[in-house]
Write a structure and sequence with these properties.
By secondary structure, this protein is mostly beta strands. Helix content is 10%, strand content 59%. The chain contains two helices and 15 strands. It has a 15-stranded antiparallel β-sheet that branches. A hairpin with a 5-residue loop joins strand 1 and strand 2.
Length: 270
């Protein structure tokens, strides 16, 4: 009897030595790392603000874009999920070229659907599917006024707080205004991130585009810091990033830029 009491007392000492928020921190860290996975079983609603400048031949142009990017996983069966990723850009821009003036409105919408195994394949998480470009027609200087489609894919692995992977797509235009340039564009997003036990995440990535018609690269390098916090029971990720244009398209943004985002998370339990 005495030995049982001693064992219980020892166990109580061990438990009491754990910080009160240790389990919460662990859970928050896991949730924060899921955000580094573009096809996680996690409903999220990011609001991402981007500021870029030095557009045009005289480097006078500026562009502000608020991307609304809902991510919704849909279980298809026990083995497969479909993940919907939508990007709706709200654009404010000024003097993209001399005399252009300012424009604002909804930019072209990008809709991706990834079909992904419910469980990793030998430790690798992956998904493939279609991507569509939906023109907004809000303004000729904001919208491509072209409909586009193509394939998209993502592959990554996560271990000990680290996430390493890449997302890619390619879009060809197939309809739209005949007097607008055709679209034949590749998007590449390799990414590397580390999430700490207290739910800080440090991310390095590039969101490069290559225009096959003009043979033109745009290569922004993003360096981001984010923190998962909770407002009541609602988990929210707050992030800020610096961006440097290592290579710019003709008359595209140059130099340094800025990004900030707020992401609301809705864990599905899957």
């Amino acid at each position: 009897m005495l030995m049982k009491k001693l064992h219980a007392f020892a166990l109580l000492l061990v438990i009491s030595s754990i910080p009160l928020n240790a389990l919460a921190q662990s859970s928050d860290s896991d949730l924060a790392q899921q955000l580094s996975n573009p096809i996680a079983s996690l409903i999220s609603l990011p609001f991402q603000f981007n500021f870029d400048e030095r557009f045009g031949p005289e480097d006078d142009g500026t562009k502000n874009v608020l991307n609304i990017q809902p991510v919704i996983p849909v279980p298809l069966n026990e083995d497969w999920n479909m993940i919907s990723r939508t990007i709706v850009p709200l654009v404010w821009q000024d003097e993209l070229f001399p005399g252009a003036g300012d424009q604002h409105g909804v930019g072209d919408i990008t809709q991706s659907l990834f079909f992904s195994p419910a469980l990793p394949t030998n430790g690798v998480i992956w998904g493939v599917g279609p991507v569509a470009l939906i023109p907004s027609y809000s303004d000729p200087l904001i919208s491509s006024e072209k409909w586009g489609a193509g394939p998209t894919a993502v592959v990554l692995t996560q271990r000990d707080g680290w996430t390493v992977g890449a997302l890619a797509n390619h879009i060809w235009s197939f309809a739209g205004e005949e007097d607008r340039n055709d679209i034949n564009s590749t998007f590449l997003q390799p990414f590397l991130s580390y999430t700490t036990p207290d739910a800080w995440t440090f991310t390095l990535n590039t969101e490069s585009t290559y225009n096959w018609n003009t043979e033109d690269w745009g290569v922004p390098i993003n360096m981001q810091v984010s923190k998962l916090v909770k407002f009541g029971e609602q988990p929210v990720s707050l992030a800020a990033a610096a961006r440097y244009w290592a290579n710019s398209t003709t008359n595209g943004a140059e130099g340094w830029a800025f990004r900030a985002s707020v992401t609301f998370l809705f864990p599905t339990g899957g």
